[in-house]
């Protein structure tokens, strides 16, 4: 097969940042995806409907004329997010979820939730109005090993949460373990998961053997090979509750190549191409469209995109870095040759 044509995909987990970085990263996503769920972990975090709408406008303002990329906004859940705010968010056509960051779990999560018990009424309002809860699913207690934080979250937080709120719709973001894949597959229809390219491509050896490679460092951290295999099985299974979410998370090169480097992999510049390669290597190219362009829209109860994209089999090499204004950014798979190329793609490193 020399080309694949699929419905235009959507990215159900994306960081676009703000200010000077925004204009450098948005075009990569807008070229590939019709819509993206935009994460609210800015500084300060996006905690109100008006802040989300203002951020949405800043994103739209950076788009080249004629681009019809749609940012789907989210709110950042805090201990103090009120049920009224959740109700107001649910009523906005531009807000599609509320994001739970356990305080201290990841990049810009300091304002996150310290105890989910404080959010019960807000979660009930979200359930009532059908507004999904999006999870960074890791516990943060200092005594829990970083490699166990996701599986511990399932037992301690997620399972009880689903029981307490029997109609709450939940997206378990960027799952990284066999346990998470199994939990979602055996869970109710109102539970879904996104899977990143890095967790489908790499295990922790890629990050730690033969030298420490900070550009593989993201949270939740890369796990074992058997976890990667389970995620690959889930992504390519055709199960509609697994869908594409890149978690593309830009950090300047200097902030990653540091004694205390930031967590996050930037993949927006080659995201659908990487997933195509992953699905082809798994012998499941026929299931790429479901994962990338259908399952997420159905879960979020949004129309499927009608427009198509075409990927052609043509080698191209990902730049070692992209311009970020005053700094540069090193993408996932930097310098590697990819075999699927998006029709009409222009390289603008
Ligand atoms: N995934 C990451 O490692 N980093 C994300 C935050 C997140 O999604 O947890 C970021 O904002 O940089
Ligand atoms: Zn996260
Ligand atoms: Zn993320």
Give the total of domains. 1
Order of helices and strands: EEHEHEHEHEHEHEHHHEHHHEEEE
Small-molecule components bound:
N-carbamoyl-L-aspartate, zinc ion
Radius of gyration: 19 Å
The whole-number mean of residue pLDDT values reads 97
CATH class: Alpha Beta
Oligomeric grouping of the chains: single chain
Gross morphology: globular
Pathway: Pyrimidine metabolism; UMP biosynthesis via de novo pathway; (S)-dihydroorotate from bicarbonate: step 3/3
EC number: 3.5.2.3
Modified residues (N6-carboxylysine): 99
Binding site for Zn(2+) 2: 99, 136, 174
Task: Set out the fold topology.
Layout: E1 3-7, E2 11-14, H1 19-32, E3 35-38, H2 49-62, E4 70-76, H3 83-91, E5 95-100, H4 120-129, E6 133-135, H5 149-164, E7 170-172, H6 178-185, E8 191-195, H7 197-201, H8 204-208, H9 225-235, E9 242-244, H10 253-256, H11 271-281, H12 288-299, E10 308-317, E11 322-323, E12 328-329, E13 337-342
Parallel strand pairs: 2-3, 3-4, 4-5, 5-6, 6-7, 7-8, 8-9
Antiparallel strand pairs: 1-10, 10-13, 11-12
Key phrases:
349 residues; 17% strand; binds N-carbamoyl-L-aspartate; TIM Barrel; alpha/beta; binds zinc ion; 12 helices
